[in-house]
């Protein structure tokens, strides 16, 4: 076994990343997975803090120092069990969590030595385990209880995992053609291979989950039907309504909302029916926004053969909201960034097709109580950027299907579902979690809420 606290002798390394010229040719993941030796040596850098900040900062409170110690000693099966105990899908969070803001950001070594590569080691532990034939374990359906999960994204998949571990039958309803929510139709394949998501879904089905795809609750099946056949319901319907800039000509042809664009390109890649208007080959694409979704639109456009791909963002690069890693990857792949600009108007031709976007320059002024600078527009600073396609990536809000109000399920002023400390909504026996409850956020927070809700449901049904 390697000694721990090896950070003096061993530098932080990240897994090998495919060269940018090569990776823009396809939608395959850009990072390799650590080898057994790399993972072990990197894990041996861990200080084994008595009160580990990484564990506290991880929304799932993963036992990070324990699995690092196990993997450093090549005890891969133990690491696999520990990692899969607290996390419903470690190989997914390891790939796409913004670790710099979570576990790695709070690692004691993140003070100049370089944080432990927690995310990459987490991915390695599960992928290596799967290769060796390890699988998540389930007891089979051993209770007479039945829970419906509406929405198959990370929150729903997490809730299903923990209910199935307790032997409770799960019916999962999904309006799309495939399960996974934004893991499948939002986050592009160069960040998360779609087979990785499908594998987890398959294991849940093998464990006793019935998956009902193309089944929208409130349209194809009524909420009452679902309620009458189940002992509890978990709502994990996400928050996919795109925020709009409310500009002149915003509805012109070739002005897209980020999710519509990303979903249809993913459908194209799945060889499913998609709308050809989202094809960007040979076009000048302008993306408005500076978060992770904007980076995904830029990088998708590059892979789809756009002529030019520009990102226009209203603050400076130090105030971009997304992950630094994704920003750097987008830049390396050829996206061109302009900071301190905000859109004023979409310019369209007589056929109502976008031809340019009028922008204005901004400066940052005083910071608010959250440390965020407000934006002032510089008068008379208007300029035009030519564009064949404009994509807005300005965040998402919760949608509020009619069945919520019809069933007395309360939402707050932003449309997010209200819950109590047990994740139960204002309607008894109906729980909620993930983006539909907290507003658009992260996979790992959706995972944590699905898990916590499952624990509350299990307690209410089985004790
Ligand atoms: C482009 C993009 C990139 C992102 N990248 C990252 C990232 O790198 N890392 C990260 O941590 N997070 C990322 N996120 C955020 C993350 O994907 C979400 O926070 C997370 O998916 C929320 O999970 P959820 O289960 O609450 O909702 P969703 O993933 O939105 O799933 C909700 C599901 O419910 C279904 N549904 C809705 N209504 C009904 C109904 N009435 N009947 C049946 N089914 C219904 C929907 O079709 C959907 O499949 C990204 C988001 C986007 C949009
Ligand atoms: S789930 Fe995310 S935050 Fe938690 S240990 Fe894994 S990568 Fe870090």
Can you characterise this structure?
- The chain is an alpha/beta fold and 463 residues long.
- It folds into three domains: 6-131, Orthogonal Bundle (Fumarate Reductase Iron-sulfur Protein, Chain B, domain 2), CATH 1.10.1060; 146-239 and 398-462, FAD/NAD(P)-binding domain (3-Layer(bba) Sandwich); 242-395, 3-Layer(bba) Sandwich (FAD/NAD(P)-binding domain), CATH 3.50.50.
- Helices cover 34% and strands 16% of the residues.
- The chain contains 17 helices and 16 strands.
- The strands form four sheets. The chain has a five-stranded parallel beta sheet, sandwiched between helices. A five-stranded parallel beta sheet has the order 6-14-7-8-9. Strands 10, 11, 12 and 13 form a four-stranded antiparallel beta sheet that branches.
- Helix 8 (154-165) runs parallel beside helix 17 (443-462).
- The radius of gyration is 23 Å and the shape is globular.
- The model has no long low-confidence stretch (mean pLDDT 96).
- Iron/sulfur cluster binds at residues 58, 60, 62, 64, 87, 93-94, 97, 99, 102-103, 118-119, 122, 444.
């Amino acid at each position: 076994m390697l000694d721990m606290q090896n950070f003096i002798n061993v530098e932080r390394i990240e897994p090998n990343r495919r060269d940018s010229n090569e990776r823009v040719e396809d939608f395959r993941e850009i990072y390799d997975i650590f080898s057994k030796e790399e993972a072990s040596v990197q894990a041996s850098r861990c200080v084994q803090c008595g009160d580990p900040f990484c564990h506290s900062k991880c929304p799932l409170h993963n036992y990070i120092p324990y699995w690092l110690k196990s993997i450093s000693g090549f005890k891969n099966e133990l690491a696999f069990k520990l990692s899969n105990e607290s996390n419903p899908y470690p190989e997914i969070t390891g790939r796409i969590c913004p670790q710099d803001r979570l576990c790695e950001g709070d690692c004691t070594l993140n003070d100049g030595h370089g944080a432990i590569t927690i995310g990459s080691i987490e991915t390695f532990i599960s992928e290596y385990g799967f290769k060796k034939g390890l699988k998540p374990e389930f007891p089979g359906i051993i209770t007479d209880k039945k829970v419906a999960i509406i929405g198959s994204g990370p929150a729903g998949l997490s809730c299903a995992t923990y209910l199935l571990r307790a032997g409770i039958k799960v019916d999962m309803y999904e309006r799309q053609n495939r399960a996974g929510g934004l893991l499948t139709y939002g986050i592009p394949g160069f960040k998360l291979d779609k087979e990785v998501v499908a594998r987890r879904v398959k294991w849940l089905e093998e464990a006793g989950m019935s998956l009902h795809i193309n089944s929208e609750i409130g349209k194809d099946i009524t909420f009452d039907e679902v309620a009458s056949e189940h002992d509890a319901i978990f709502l994990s319907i996400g928050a996919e309504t795109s925020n709009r800039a409310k500009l002149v000509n915003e509805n012109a042809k070739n002005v897209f909302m980020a999710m519509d664009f990303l979903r249809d390109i993913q459908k194209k890649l799945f060889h499913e029916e998609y709308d050809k208007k989202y094809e960007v080959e040979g076009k000048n694409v302008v993306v408005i926004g500076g978060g992770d979704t904007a980076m995904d639109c830029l990088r998708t456009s590059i892979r789809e053969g756009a002529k030019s791909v520009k990102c226009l963002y209203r603050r400076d690069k130090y105030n971009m909201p997304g992950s630094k890693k994704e920003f750097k990857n987008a830049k390396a792949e050829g996206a061109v960034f302009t900071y301190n600009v905000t859109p004023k108007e979409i310019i369209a031709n007589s056929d109502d097709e976008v031809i340019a976007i009028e922008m204005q320059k901004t400066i940052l002024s005083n910071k608010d109580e959250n440390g965020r600078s407000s934006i002032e527009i510089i008068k008379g600073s208007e300029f035009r950027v030519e564009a064949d396609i404009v994509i807005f990536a300005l965040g998402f809000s919760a949608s509020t299907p009619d069945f919520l109000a019809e069933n007395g399920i309360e939402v707050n002023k932003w449309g997010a579902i209200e819950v109590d400390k047990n994740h139960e909504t204002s309607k008894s026996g109906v729980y909620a979690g993930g983006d539909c409850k907290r507003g658009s956020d992260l996979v790992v927070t959706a995972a944590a809420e699905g898990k916590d809700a499952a624990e509350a449901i299990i307690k209410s049904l089985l004790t």
